[in-house]
Amino acid sequence: MNKNDPYAALRIKEFNIFLLLRLVLVFGWSMQFIVIEWQVYSLTKDPLSLGLIGLMEIVPAFTMALFAGHIVDQREKRNLLATIIAAFSLISLGLFLLTWPVVVSSWSTHTILYCIYALVFFGGFLRSFFGPTIFSLIALIVPKKLYANAATWSSSTWQMASVLGPAFAGFSIGWIGVHWSLCIIFGLIILSLFIVFRIKKKPILNPKIGEPVIKSLKEGVQFVFKTKAILGAITLDMVAVLFGGAVALLPIFAQDILKVGSEGFGVLRAAPAVGAFLTMLITAYLPISKNAGLKLLGAIFGFGVCIIVFGLSSIFWVSVLALFFSGVTDGVSMVIRQTILQIKTPDHMRGRVASVNSMFVGSSNELGAFESGLTAKLMGTVTAVVFGGTMTLITVVTTGIVSPSFRKLDLRKDIEDHEKD
């Protein structure tokens, strides 16, 4: 096999099943988040209510993350993922029932909102398991020499679903309404439950089954903090996502600033993912392991600039382009970060390392949504977005100055070592 083959991981049948599973699941998950954002803001017209969606998800996701990583490292991954998907289907069913016309007409707005927030909270709990399980499963499907290639295709699939899900959600809200859009989402989650059983059960590689929880968690956290490449990558990305979370305010831009309706909302929401997806396809052919540290810093700096441009724009297509290029830069960041994590994490610690990553990066999406909603309430929507982009730029410059070792990070030798295994 040609070591430069951009399709190397795709030649493994089970990895293709995994990608299909991830596409369907993330499509439904991202579509659901968009529909709920739209419904909540339509009910309240309060930017803080959008921030509360993020807060309701981050609290369980953050507090459970380390324990979830420990459990993932101790359990068989295929069946664990099936359990997570089955539980997630209950959330989708609940949201579908909450938007039933009979329920909407007989329940108060506050009751419906509280129920939505409760289901989002349960979803945050599940998400703390989802990321580490997916991350660990990839490493059990493909050989080590293909980790970097598999990480690129897996991230690309995630972005493809993030493109299609929000775009379809925006149009489906306009075509068939919130209620039936949620019915489609429920169907997608059930489909993913069937797909997951096409993947074979995997061996548990952790040699310390039954290890005390506290000792296991301590080992995972210490590994991340000792591995400077991992710590630097996820910390930098966390701050960028935290302060650059403009996407949480897109319902406000679509409805009140740009006035483009649900279809325009779908386009805005999909634009970053389109940019990221195209970037990831390119990186499958043109690896970016050389000077990875500098490229990561440059990508996140560019992301901050795009967020500022988006915040200041009052023209729809300028806003779309700004979000598109924010996705381009985010795509570079994601590929580099995922490659670092896959290459530098030992098999028996993947669940715990992925959990720490989700605490830093994954949870910062929801915390960023809360930060954006809160600052929009206090400063105004446009000012809040510009403030977030500015903080991202300051963080990148500061990291570049205080961490010369991160600037010099190069992944080529690590990848070559894996190819020899």
Automatic annotation (TrEMBL):
The keyword Membrane applies. It is a multi-pass membrane protein. InterPro entries: MFS_trans_sf (IPR036259), TM_effector (IPR010290). Its main location: membrane. Signal peptide: none annotated. It comes from Gaetbulibacter aquiaggeris. The keyword Ligase does not apply. Coiled coil: none annotated. It is found in: Cell membrane. Gene3D superfamilies: MFS general substrate transporter like domains (1.20.1250.20). The chain crosses the membrane at residues 15-36, 48-68, 80-104, 179-199, 229-254, 266-288, 300-325, 378-402. Keywords: Cell membrane, Membrane, Transmembrane, Transmembrane helix, Transport. PANTHER family: ENTEROBACTIN EXPORTER ENTS (PTHR23513:SF9), INTEGRAL MEMBRANE EFFLUX PROTEIN-RELATED (PTHR23513). This is MFS transporter.
